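Morning run. Coffee first, then this:
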Amino acid sequence: MPAKTYGYAENSADVDALQVYAGVDVILEDMPERGQYRMLRRFLREGDTLMVTALSSLGDSDGPIGEELDYFLQHEIRLVVLELPITLQELDTSSTALVYRTVKEVLQVWQQHKEAAQVQRLVRQKEGIQAARKAGRQFGRPAIDYPKDWKCVFEQWQARDISAIEACHKLKLSRSTFFRMAKRYRQGDK
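And here it is:
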């Protein structure tokens, strides 16, 4: 059976890029969780070529992408990634293995850098929030002040002289606001 070339794209821009480069038929992802890709992968045989525009088409992080590279290397499937010029060249088996290993290592370093940057950003964000709180900055929506007749109406409601609905009407508050204020008042925020 002759080797075939397949294209895989996640959006129409990728489809256009693949067709301009090689003029192959492209499978466009229209299923969640890369369902089309998983079906396409079953059709790939030794000697076939899979074309994608970016490595991110194969997975979301270095782990899944590395597993795919291992799979392609093991099954002697050529991977052409338009954003990686080295993959556009015809390579022998040992050179292909070297390229795949190098790409995997670069992905791991990139993923570690990305995780470290995310941790650093979270630490800086936490420090900024703490500094703002120390400076007296309030976060969130400000609490509504108690209406003029609050204490009198609240005591009537507590004594069960009036219902919650009547208390809401007297104070011109919604039911949820009334109960939120009642909770706050009971907790000592007067």
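The CA atoms of residues 62 and 106 lie 9 Å apart. Good start to the day.
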